[in-house]
């Protein structure tokens, strides 16, 4: 019997903001796509997600990596704004609330979570939130999955975990968690997969 539904944020509850930001920065500002992608996927970016460095430290570092005329604050704003709420996924999560324990599980940035909650008030939807910056770990590290398993307090087979990234979800699947891979716009497929696993609403 499924007891817990674990939801990734970027790519599931929200559009995958990095790709959207890169497209907009390239199209509207003329920023080099590869350079922006490299920065937003850098080791420093991972350290920011893990809470190992501050926003100020990260964005000061970014400003030093980009050509004259580029603005780190513009990159930051587009990156955060790229995370657009998926209303269909939110409606499904709300339908599950009260029937299952709902858990947010995300390799995210503290300031972005705060920004998105101010914009969308999404955090009240969840019963438990597990963020990379609180544990100095992120996806796809197996230790981060272990944190999730300890936090929810039930057996792996009693959990359904929805993510958009197969590689990020693999450590959970390897531990016996029921994994569903979601692609933006495929809400009907997500509903079918959840029902196949015995989730009802």
N/C terminus separation:
14 Å
Rounded average pLDDT:
97
Outline type: globular
Largest sheet: 5 strands, parallel
Beta-strand portion reads: 5-15%
Low-confidence spans? none
Would you report the number of β strands?
5
Which radius of gyration do the C-alpha atoms yield? 17 Å
Query: How does CATH name the architecture of the largest domain?
Result: 3-Layer(aba) Sandwich
- How many domains make up the 3D coordinates? 2
Note the run of SSEs as H and E: EHHHHHHEHEHHEHEH
Query: Given the structure, what is the number of helices?
Result: 11
Helix content range? 40-55%
Task: Give the name of the CATH superfamily of the largest domain.
Answer: HAD superfamily/HAD-like
* Strand adjacency order, main sheet: 3-2-1-4-5
Give the CATH class of the largest domain.
Alpha Beta
Question: What's the oligomerization state?
Answer: single chain
Structural class label: alpha/beta
Q: Kindly identify the CATH topology of the largest domain.
A: Rossmann fold
